[in-house]
Specification:
With 444 residues, this protein is of the alpha/beta class. The chain contains 14 helices and twelve strands.
Length: 444
């Protein structure tokens, strides 16, 4: 048998993974629980590993979970109560690492799933972290800058017992940004009486952030795509790209694809999407979004919905928004010709994975494809600890090297095991964490 989900000249399609699918709209219809999805992915990979039952149970469970509720004084003098989370999935390979998400949809199971995926992601790219994730239930767009700072500093104080450059190192995620990381770093530092820049990554460069960190995830997506095209003998220049999501990850992915000579034909954000079969002028679109805070209304494209965007013909589809975008309902509509590159975490359900596999599409999984952010977060952490900072060219070159190496680690494992890229990435990541766990042994 040959590797699944590779070009038809190299691959044979095997039986689909059976699973329950959900409907595409997160807001209006039920979707798959992210933690259950992460566990199902885990269960699909475990048969490829010779692990004892006790180790398997350890790796499935989160090491610690903290839920906090805290008050924030609003600009009108009222007090609102917010709920936040911080979850550590595993620390066998080093301090836990993971972003903080501000969203009305955050819940504990989502944070658990994201923490677990982060563990495997760090192991796949072979950096010395375990997985963590955090979140606050809020809509940051409805908060003033003053309210957002108050919420951030209070949340940082509530979870400070878990944080530390050698314990748990947060980073930005959906709804957060470098300024929020600066407030967390400052709050932690005030508690300790001295500056601790290495407690978070994704900070502004002027307080210890790394050059190239903001662009890292999107660049990493395209580095893996470019290596896939090179490996399979495809022509990247002129390839048609569709990007769902135009936040930090999606916008930088689109810009990098444009700079690589691809034709970005459609993008979308929470308000809707735009499409131009002749290709979008991404630098001009970025200026438009900077002014109007949405892609909707851009004059050089026609308006489309997010559902329509997923069904557009293209060579490369990049879901870079949120979880549960490609499901048993939406996956059959996908018209990508070559591959799906997961810029978001958990955008594809296990049942959708099986559908895309039967369609002959390669899926570059999230724990490989979007790992550029945590790779450069690792670079930032190292630079902060050493107080020795790198030029952006060095950061980008090192990022490319790690993403290319990791792509081939996963691709070669997929060929060896006759399985999908996602299963191969999970086998690689879980195996490395299991090996570290067994090497350390059990205490006491």
């Amino acid at each position: 048998m040959t590797i699944q989900n590779l070009p038809q000249s190299e691959a044979a399609v095997s039986s689909a993974i059976s699973s329950e699918g959900k409907t595409p709209s997160r807001a209006s219809q039920p979707v798959e629980n992210p933690y259950q999805m992460a566990l199902r992915q885990f269960d699909c990979a475990i048969p490829f590993l010779n692990l004892k039952a006790g180790i398997i149970e350890m790796l499935k469970r989160c090491k610690r979970e903290l839920t906090v509720t805290f008050p924030v004084k609003m600009d009108d003098g009222s007090v609102r109560i917010f709920t936040g989370y911080r979850v550590h999935h595993n620390t066998a390979r080093g301090p836990s690492k993971g972003g903080i998400r501000y969203s009305p949809h955050v819940d504990l199971d989502e944070v658990r799933a994201l923490a677990m995926w982060m563990t495997w992601k760090c192991a796949v790219v072979n950096i010395p972290y375990g997985g963590a994730k955090g979140g606050v239930i809020c809509d940051p767009r409805q908060l003033s800058l003053h309210e957002l700072e108050g919420l951030t500093r209070r949340y940082a104080t509530e979870i400070a017992m878990l944080l530390g450059p050698d314990r748990d190192v947060p980073a930005p995620d959906m709804g957060t940004n470098p300024q929020i990381m600066a407030w967390i770093m400052d709050t932690y530092s005030m508690h300790h009486g001295y500056s601790v820049p290495a407690v978070v990554t994704g900070k502004p460069v002027n307080i210890g952030g790394s050059a190239g960190r903001l662009e890292a995830t999107g660049r990493g997506v395209m580095f893996t795509v470019a290596e896939a095209f090179k490996t399979f003998g495809w022509q990247l220049a002129g390839a048609e790209v569709v990007v769902q999501g135009f936040g930090n990850v999606g916008s930088i992915t689109a810009l990098t694809a444009h700079q690589m000579g691809c034709k970005v034909v459609a993008v979308s954000d929470i308000e809707g999407g735009i499409y131009n079969p002749a290709g979008l002028n991404i630098p001009k679109l970025l200026q438009y979004v900077k002014e109007f805070r949405t892609v909707v209304g851009f004059s050089e494209a026609e308006q489309i919905t997010n559902d329509e965007l997923l069904a557009l013909p293209c060579d490369i589809l990049v879901p870079a928004a949120t979880e549960n975008q490609l499901t048993r309902v939406t996956a059959p509509r996908v018209r990508a010709r070559k591959l799906v590159a997961e810029g978001a975490n958990g955008p594809t359900t296990p049942e959708a994975d099986a559908i895309l596999k039967d369609m002959g599409l390669i899926v570059i999984p999230d724990i490989l494809c979007n790992a550029g952010g945590v790779v450069v977060s690792y670079f930032e952490w190292v630079q902060d600890l050493q107080q020795l900072f790198w030029e952006e060219e060095t950061v980008t070159d090192q990022l490319r090297r790690i993403m290319v190496r990791s792509f081939h680690d996963v691709y070669n494992r997929a060929k060896e095991l006759n399985t999908t890229m996602r299963n191969a990435a999970l086998v690689l990541g879980i195996g490395r964490v299991a090996e570290a766990t067994m090497t350390r042994g059990l205490y006491p």
